[in-house]
Amino acid sequence: MKNLLASPLEGIITPMVTPLLDDYHLDFEGLQKLTQHLISGGVHGIFILGTTGECTNISYALRSSLIQETCLKVKGAVPVLVGITDTSMEESISLAKIAHKSGASAVVAAPPYYFGLGDVELVDYYKKLAQALPLPLFLYNMPSHTKTMLSQKVVVELSQQANIIGLKDSSGNAVYFNSMVYAFRKQPDFSLLVGPEEMMAAAVLMGGHGGVSGGSNMFPKLYVDLYEAARSGDLPLMAQLQEMVMEISSELYALGSYGSSYLKGLKAALSILEISNGYLATPMAAFGEEKLNLIRDKMTRLQAYMNYRS
Known about the structure:
With 310 residues, this protein is α/β, with parallel strands linked by helices. 47% of the residues lie in helices and 11% in strands.
């Protein structure tokens, strides 16, 4: 099967939520609606089983099913990237084999979590993992969740491995990301993608290749348009679209004092848009009716605001 992956991968890669009926069953209708919504919105790729996809909270059976069903539903329209982050290398390799067999284009791995790892351990781990994978690998820097930061030195050394082809940085550290842009200025094929959507346009202006933007689950065209404005240097349009992205962040992602408030708000919004339901895998839980009504009001205001600004 032909691999759809560009070198470097650029644009808006949606970290897709995992539509669930409950802890044991995927929402297949929601998955169909969501993948078509993203493709119609013009996204440049779909990333499943990341943080937004609740990768650590769903069973291996569900992860396997999600990989297969997503690839079937996307039908080669855009590259599918599959998260294989795990504390066990064997489990990561197993997921990668399923991804390869299903037609995915690449895999994504954050450092094994629980124990913090040093640079020597990280380099050794990723080299062993990369050599065992049937697909290209994106490194995933997510220190808030893994307790381990991928240093510039580690990323540069690992980029010499033929099938390690990019970095997704979700540290939220602009200085770190810009140091990566500088470090890879002579390696233009190594893809540098930023996680926090609030930083995406600025990261592209600085030389990054795009963003893995959670809000594109809801409003894919908005994030694609913002990426294109940044890439073309259309600063007035970029400023206008960036304001909308910041409104989404402010209104939908900060409700309640939960570590998962972003995901609760995002899944609630998707249920209001009738794309999928708002179920979150245990131990997380969806918003109750009171907060769901607040999200509904915020969505109404956001959509009116976006229509006004456009």
